[in-house]
Amino acid sequence: MSLVTITNVTKRYDPDIILDDISVAIAPGDRIGLIGRNGCGKTTLLKIISGMLTDFKGDVVLAKGRRIGYLSQEPELERDCTLRQEMLTVFEERLALEDKMLLLAEEMETQEAPHLLQEYARIHEKHERLGGYDYEHQINRVLGGLGFSDQDFNLPVRVLSGGQKSRATLAKLLLEEPDLLLLDEPTNHLDINGIEWLENYLNTEYNSGVLVVSHDRYFLDKVVRKVWELADHKINIFRGNYSKYLEMKNIEQLVDRRAFKIQQAFIAQEKEFIDRNIAGQRTREAQGRRKKLERLEIVEKPKSEAPTLKLNFTPGSRGGDDILRCQNVSKQFGDKVLFTDLNFEVYRGDVIGIIGPNGSGKTTLFRMILGQEQPTQGNLWVGPGLRLGYYTQELEGLNPDNEILDEIWALCPDQTPFEVRSFLAKFLFSGDDVFKRIGNLSGGEQSRVQLAKLLLEKANVFLLDEPTNHLDIPAREALENALADYPATLFIISHDRFLLNRLATKLLIFDVAKEETTRFFEGTYAEYEAEQQKQVVDAKQDQQLKNVQSSPPPKQTKSKSKRKRKMKAQRLVGSN
Question: Is pLDDT above 80 for 575?
Answer without folding.
Answer: no
